[in-house]
Amino acid sequence: MRVVPADEASWDDVQLILTGSAGRCQCERQRLGDGDWWHMPVEARRDLLRSELRGEDRQGEDPRSSRSIGLVAYLDGEPVGWCAVDRRNVYGRLRGSSVPWAGRDERKDDDRVWAVACLIVRPGFRGRGLTYPLVAAAVDHARSGGAAAIEGYPMLTGGTKIAWGEMNVGAVGPFAAAGFVEVSHPTTRRVVMRREF
CA separation (Å) from 32 to 28, 64, 104, 145, 185? Predict the structure, then answer.
C-alpha cells in the first residue's frame, strides 16, 4: 500500500473513496462542527473540500489551514483509503465536544498537537487491515509537519461488528500498533489515544 498527502492525489480518487455517508460528509463535519456542517448542502461541502485539497484555504491566518488536510491510500494503484489528519485545533467538532476533553486539562487551541479525525476505507476493501498503515502514515505526516504529539479518538468494539458509519474514528488496534497510548476513557466505547514525539 502507498499513502500520499491528499493534495498529491487526484480529486476523482478522493471521491471514489468518499462514498455513502462519507460522500455526504465530504470530511467536513469534524472540521466545521455540527452546526455549520448540518446546514451546508452536500455540494457546498464537496466544493469546500476540493478547495482545501487544492490549498486555497492554506493562505494567511486561517486557523483551519494546513500544509495538507489528510492522506490518501492506494493499493496496487487503486484508491482505497482516506485519513483526515491535521492540527487538532482546526477541527471545530473536536473543540466543541466534551468527549475528547473529559478528565483532561489541556489547551484546545494548542497547534502543536495534531489529530486523526477520520478514517475511511472504500467499500470492497474493508476488513483487510488497511487502517493500520493509514494511521502509521498519519504519525509520519504529523511528525514531518512539526507536531509535538498526535491524538486519535478510536472506538472500542469489544469484538462485535460495528456499523461502518460509527467506525470513521477507527478502532483501537491501528492506533496501538502505531505507538499511541490511552490517555483517557471518556465514554463506554470511546478512548482518547496519544503519541508524543
Answer: 6, 9, 23, 22, 25
